[in-house]
Amino acid sequence: PNPQVLLASNPYQIRRAASGKLYAAANFGRMWTSVDTGRNWIQEISLPQGQNYSSLATWAFDISPSGKFLTMGQNGVLADSTAGSPWKSNYSMQVTGGYGKIEFADCNNAIASGGSSIAVTNDGGKNWFDRTRSDFTSLNISINSHTYVPNDPTKAYFATSVGTIYKSTNMNVIPPAVPTLDPVFANANEQIFDVATAGVDSVWGCGYSGFSVAAASRSPKIFRSVNGGLTWTTLATFPVGTTSQQFTQI
Description:
1 helix
């Protein structure tokens, strides 16, 4: 329409109901409707309200032969309704976030991490629980990698962008209990890109100088603990400068 009233919601599907009313499903849980063949539109909704998925995009939309309205879209969200009735859904969005790594400790226990997001499962991936760290979000701390202690789903290490390695000794606690993460290594001049374990007590990390270090002085480093993170040794015998290599995996 002119003037444009649909803003940035980007309608993807348009359908005409038996009443002649037009429906256009869109981003942000919106539904645009028109009763005058598209000359004027008003904003309605395409998902149940008050849920953690209420503002997701509904890219797919149709009206069944029985008159039921069906929407589906982002993260697998889905809902249904009849004209004039509230939207209903049995959809459950357990976790949200961007994950760069997933690792299983055994057939049941696993961690997915990335940015400030942590998700855990204790039933082989059927259900996931959000363990996102709000303090990481506010402090702009990004989890670059994580690893379990071999054969122990209770213990895990997390490598971060701010030079801190965190350790948890209760990673598999049953919700609503939340696992604790305690810092065991910290150097604000470094970025820790990866962490790995060998046996019960040996932990290895690798990284590269942070942006607080002058470019000419930056270098890759390896960090090692042989007592479960109580003390650390830094190996820094590698080339220095703008052309030095970066260690991102160990």
